[in-house]
Amino acid sequence: SAVHLGRQFTPDGHVRATRAMTVTAMTTVMADARATINGRPSWHIAGGRLNGYWLAESASAFKPGSIQRLELPAGPSIDISAGTHTGYRYSAQGGVIGSRTVHYATARTVSVTAWKIVNGRPHFLVGSGALNGTWLPESSATRLRV
Fold first, then answer.
1. Which residue from 11, 19, 24, 119 puts its CA 20 to 30 A from 98's CA?
2. Backbone conformation region of residue 143, classed left if phi is above 0, alpha if psi is from -120 to 50, else beta
């Protein structure tokens, strides 16, 4: 089971009220808006126990599929730490339709061409190397080079 905490905010961004909701299985709720509040993407819930509250987006509270895609035309790169990494290909609904796993004995730098959130988790679209053409989840093992 998981506990999700909804928040209501004052106009200046302070938390005015909270409400918890415990779920024991994957649950679907209606959301009517998405906004970044105090630096965190959040969904405004429109029904059920959290009606009128904002729920922070996370890997356990997300809209299935991809949202907020950004093309990166300048061709930045990311540093990938040594270790095993898996890049994914996703359907429009967020289902995995393919993957590629590689093991790097040493750190690597690869180009990236886009960034997006898939199923609540940020990803880079790798543009070079063994993971070319796959979406690599952003993590402590990846670092954007600017």
1. 24
2. beta
Q: pLDDT tens for residues 43-99?
A: 899 988 899 999 988 877 877 767 667 778 777 899 999 999 999 999 878 889 999
Let me know: does 38 contact 11? Beta carbons within 8 Å: no
* 3-state SS track over the chain: CEEEEEEEECCCCCEEEEEEEEECCCCCCCEEEEEEECCEEEEEECCCCCCCCEEECECCECCCCEEEEEECCCCCEEEECCEEEEEEEECCCCCEEEEEEEEECCCEEEEEEEEEEECCEEEEEECCCCCCCCEEECCCCEEEEC
pLDDT in tens, 111-127: 999 988 888 888 999 99
Tell me if 46 sits within 8 A of 58, measured CB to CB: no
